[in-house]
Design a protein that fits this description.
The chain has about 250 residues and is of the alpha+beta class. It contains six helices and twelve strands. Helix content is about 25%, strand content about 30%. Helix 1 runs parallel beside helix 4.
Length: about 250
């Protein structure tokens, strides 16, 4: 199938130009004032896991001239963040999408390389949705859209709207674990097994006991997975999330 010719410089320019927030009278009121539940989507990209530490996120451009970024893992923007794209920029993006004619491509491009990150791009137009999923081997036009959205995701100006939700117990600190080690286990040697998760000793919780407070990087592993991971360790007797202590005035 013949691919619709693109002027690649257009997408490059769209990505290079800083997509800044035009009106920011108050970050707090902005977070509360933008509701995307009833707003139509224009373009969306979701990136899944890979063998390494590829950022896992979804970025969406809406028809109201705003964008959202929902980071799940291996990204500095965990949770949902928002940014104003602007009406004129939105119309420019829509024009380029029409030129791309994504409807001509197949929905799935299969890959024999399991280690690569899977990318899904959804295009919304007049009540229809075109979804294209794949790794390598996708059309050049689709890869250019991915590159543009990657640039947009990595620009500054994103404002946090919602913190990540992990479905943890009330008051749980998502990146801290209270661990009881077996009596003969050295805590400094223990954390070395979890270097990939950036586990570190915060402090020993009792001078004579084997309870320790450890921290880890929640950007590298979801808290519930880390809890299960450590719980299966043969050197661990028990593990739970640390909890925030609320101090009430008398």
């Amino acid at each position: 199938m013949k691919e619709n010719p693109w002027i690649s410089q257009r997408w490059y320019n769209l990505g290079v130009i800083s997509l800044i927030v035009l009106v920011l009278s108050s970050c707090t009121s902005l977070r509360k004032g933008v509701n995307f539940d009833k707003v139509d989507k224009v373009l969306e990209m979701s990136k899944g896991p890979c063998f390494g530490s590829c950022p896992i996120f979804t970025i969406t451009i809406y028809d109201n001239g705003w964008a959202t970024y929902t980071g799940k893992l291996y990204t500095d923007k965990l949770g949902t963040h928002i940014k104003k794209v602007g009406r004129s920029r939105l119309e420019e993006i829509k024009r380029e999408l029409r030129l791309a004619n994504l409807w001509q491509y197949q929905n799935i491009y299969r890959s024999s390389l399991p280690d690569l990150q899977s990318v899904t791009i959804n295009y919304y137009e007049k009540g229809r949705t075109k979804s294209i999923t794949g790794k390598e081997g996708r059309p050049t036009s689709v890869q250019k859209i991915e590159a543009f959205l990657d640039k947009m995701a990595n620009t500054s100006g994103w404002i946090e709207k919602e913190k990540p939700t992990y479905n943890l117990p009330a008051g749980a600190v998502p990146n801290e674990l209270i661990v009881k080690l077996k009596g003969n286990v050295n805590a400094e040697a223990f954390v070395l097994k979890y270097m990939k998760q950036n586990m570190q000793i915060v402090k020993r919780l009792s001078p004579t006991g084997d309870y320790w407070l450890f921290s880890f990087d929640e950007k590298k592993i979801p808290p519930d997975e880390m809890l299960s991971f450590v719980r299966r360790d043969r050197e661990v007797l028990s593990v739970e999330f640390n909890k925030k202590v609320e101090i009430r005035g008398r």
